[in-house]
Amino acid sequence: MTRFFRTAVTAGSIAALCAPALVMAKSAADPDPRSAYQSVDPFIGTGGEGHTFPGAVAPFGMVQLSPDTDTTCTVRDCYGHAAGYRYDDPTIQGFSHTHFSGAGHSDLGDFLIMPVSGDTVKLEPGSGDDPASGYRSRFSHDSEVAQPGYYAVTLSDYGVRAEMTAGTRIGIHRYTFPADKAAHLVFDLRTSLYNYPGKTLWSSIRLRDDRTITGCRQTRGWAPDRKLCFAMRFSAPLSAHRFVSTEQDVTYKGFQGPGRGTDAVEAKQGRALVAQLDFGTLTKPLEVKVAISSVDEAGALNNLYAETGDFDAIRDETRTAWTKALGRVKIDAPAAMRTNLYTALYHSLIAPSVAGDADGRYRGPDNEVHQADGFTFRSTFSLWDTFRAEQPLMTLIQPEKVNNEIIESLLASQQDSPFGILPVWQFQGRETWTMIGYHAVPIIADAYLKGIGGFDADKALDAMVASATYGPYGDLKDYMAMGYVPIDHEPEAASKTVEYAYDDWTIARMAEKLGKDDIAARFYKRAGYWRNSFDPKTGFVRARKSNGDFRTPFDPTAINYGSDYTEGNAWQYSWFVPQDQAALFQAMGGDAAVVKKLDQMFEFDNSKLDYSHAEDIAGLIGQYIHGNEPSHHVAYLYDYAGAPWKTQNRLKQIVDTQYKPTPDGLSGNDDLGQMSAWLMFTALGFYPVTPGSLQYAIGRPFVDKAVVSLPNGKDFTVTADNMDDAHPYVGSVTLNGKPLGRTYITQGEIMDGGRLHFTMQAAPNKQWGTAPAARPYSMSTAR
């Protein structure tokens, strides 16, 4: 039973959830009659290492209002709580307003609120082992409800029913307190995900009237010197309050802080602030409306009043927004797969998040305030992950977000950057410098080549070239001079060399389309630099020293952070030449040698290897690591070697073992939607191995039927006959009724609408799609 069907007979429970439970009498093989919205299970990925959160968020919303089960971890053990909530934790510490969906690093968890009932209010969180030692509470999963834009739970120790919903820039709490007990809120500005002493540099809180509180805080975490402000409005007046500094106790009358405008009735500032907010006994639920802003308090107040309506009104608006967004793909598949896929689509639509205020102001990577001109500034760019499938998926189902939102935000960040380069891993406008490459480049190029406009292409190309030629970044200076990154000058050099080469190819493709032949020729040459890190003797991509020698000793299975490779080893990175797999395969010895090596990768015996020191190495199938991104295209590479039936077999193996509709249903971090986007594309039967090529490699479908509603008003439909475990192989493929003998489809064919049909069979078809001319794009063989 999926989490969606659990209900609780408690104050504030949602009776409407009882109706969908009736479908459980159907067999798992029957089409699921629930709507796309009802099919989403936000609990998928909240256990294991998925790092997703179950709380309320609007599509691409600025606020992610979700429970935190523990923020008291230290830097060394916060990995498991990167999204604040872990399904196996027994207590909830409170509800904070900002969270990453599936990141491999923790931060955020801003402005935590915890409802408390009774006469005694503790201002310290206490521990999960002893919840009575603080303000946290125990809870039962049986009382939880999670839907897109809505979360609810009963806090057992207080008898409080807590509900959450969210709009674009706001979150709304609704708390139903016991009628015979006093109602309180603990508002903690000290807590954060990725805690350590001194993370909170400064904070402020001020009472504006008996229903309104504002303030800000400045933190030093994953992103240095991050500023975030809030505005909070209550549906009932405060009866009393306490603003407490647990580090120092100084009250400032009329404190202005970083905000603008109205004097406060009372204010306090310091590095360790917590508030007790009292409401007496309440005869109806208390609603708490909260807006945030990275600019100032005035921005937060403006955001607060820009979205009108009470809890139910905002919930309805967000449900409508999610229904529309999820409805762009209509899926007919067995119930478990349908839940997996609609949840994957939901996770794909959470980031990049709105980061600009309703008035257009935003804080940029220079930590200054800027004004967006005709677009909404967005951030939370996990680009090393999402360039692969997440952003290509957006070009099909959310192109309006790509052109005048995502790309304009990337370009604005480049203009605002003190270094003049595009974002690497950015959130709330602040750069973290996490991961490698300059992967904003393929996102822009892929969109432009697909005909998605609305931005200045010449300006975009200039930004791309600036990023690719900024010598201090990732030792690009040596890469440009020597044709590779030397390991004795720069860590993770083997990975950086091949990732730079792919990004360079996308620059060349866009420059060529723009008629900038000199730039195109320069970057096509750089696109071949992967050869300088390929060792023909071992058949692996390896790190080289500045004297030209490959570094020794060499172990292709070794994974150590800061060594030759980024979150992987030679087995994963030796396949990363998406722009020219044909040339790589020739260097490896041809099709037969490549097929053998791919088989060896998937069938490798890991029994004597220990990767427990590497947090992101999860979902192993031999040396294929589905829980981390460098492997994501590898199963499709059999297509490029003339053995597409092996791609079909491996995809079945991956989908069956790496995804399930349970809290531990993701084998690794969702990484802002990349794991989910991989499943969405794969289920449709094709995947963007090489964003920028305008092609998708064909695998095999995992749906009986799917209809993608395209932005041009047309539909692209995927259908399959004999879709069951007994028929795992593709027997034949037709496109618009005509036989399709190649192992790829094009962007143009999708955008033209029509039908891609698969006939599945029990045995592999070893004739279909095997000819060299039938294979997907490679730079050296492009026709």
TrEMBL record:
It is an enzyme of class 3 (hydrolase). It comes from the Bacteria. One of its GO terms (molecular function) is hydrolase activity, acting on glycosyl bonds. Residues 1-25 form the signal peptide. Keywords: Glycosidase, Hydrolase, Signal. Its EC number is 3.2.1.-. PANTHER family: PEPTIDE N-GLYCANASE PNGASE -RELATED, SECRETED PROTEIN. The keyword tRNA-binding does not apply. The keyword GTP-binding does not apply. It comes from Stakelama flava. Pfam families: Glyco_hydro_92, Glyco_hydro_92N. Residues 300-761 form the Glycosyl hydrolase family domain. This is GH92 family glycosyl hydrolase. Residues 40-293 form the Glycosyl hydrolase family 92 N-terminal domain.
